[in-house]
Amino acid sequence: MNLIWLGKYRSFFENLSLYTNVYGQAYTIQGFHGTSVPCSLAQIQVLEYILENEEENQKMSEVARRLGLSPSAFSKNVKKMMDKQLLEKYRCSNNHKDIILKASPLGRKVYQEYMNSLWKRQFEKTFAMLDQIPEEYIARFAEILKFNAEAMLRQMDELQNRPEPDEAKQAVTLVKIE
């Protein structure tokens, strides 16, 4: 059966599906990935997000949502990362319920090791290919990916009866949890 509705975009969606399926298989596998501590790609992704947004002091639920992870999958990764001493937990001084994550010194080191390894294995060539594409095309492609990810997140929220996220930001003082 020929799926006509995909039209000229068939190859694009076929390769996008291939990438997401392969990444999905590799996502939870523990390995060294050029690091001194074995991690999964999911854990590296959490480290990267926390490092990139460390000034935001986002609650665990906010980070999980931004990464498109279920709260339970995110919590499992955080527990494993805490056991490896890659993360530190903090509470807001005025709210003992919400937990804020920060990368530990070891977490920062492991992330840098990963990036040094990944640059040679994958991103050096990927960036060279992207350099051949006009920036506005890359930006448009990123919009397409984000639109589709957010649409799927909304659909998952509806299916699982999850409430809308609270976007309000307030200044907080953090207290480290031992």
TrEMBL record:
It holds the Pfam family MarR_2. Residues 32-138 form the HTH marR-type domain. GO terms for biological process: response to stress. Keywords: DNA-binding. InterPro entries: HTH_MarR-typ (IPR000835), MarR/SlyA-like (IPR039422), WH-like_DNA-bd_sf (IPR036388), WH_DNA-bd_sf (IPR036390). GO terms for molecular function: DNA binding; DNA-binding transcription factor activity. Coiled coil: none annotated. This is DNA-binding transcriptional regulator, MarR family.
